[in-house]
Specification:
Helix content is about 60%, strand content about 15%. By secondary structure, it is of the alpha+beta class. It has 2 domains: about 45 residues, no CATH class; about 30 residues, no CATH class. A two-stranded antiparallel ribbon has the order 1-2. The protein is flat, with a radius of gyration of 20 Å.
Length: about 80
């Protein structure tokens, strides 16, 4: 591990955000639970009255455009 005093980075602010997040990700059950909740919410949204905007979001194109060259795909792809 590196010595924090020699890196010269302002670690106080970054550690306040990254340490709890890193601790959460080390708990595999918590990460699995978060994935399960995300899947349940996606299923609920896809089968609700808001399904049209939800499905339209996944068709949003994202990519790069250089003149006539188009390197874009939808979020679903």
């Amino acid at each position: 591990m590196t010595d924090r005093s020699t890196t010269g980075l302002p670690h106080a602010i970054a550690d306040r955000v990254t340490k709890p997040f890193a601790r959460f990700l080390k708990i595999e059950a918590a990460a699995g639970g978060l994935l399960f909740l995300a899947a349940l919410s996606a299923l609920a949204l896809a089968n609700s009255a808001w399904s049209a905007p939800f499905l339209a979001f996944w068709e949003t194109p994202i990519g790069l455009h250089f003149g006539i060259l188009d390197f874009s795909r939808s979020l679903r792809q």
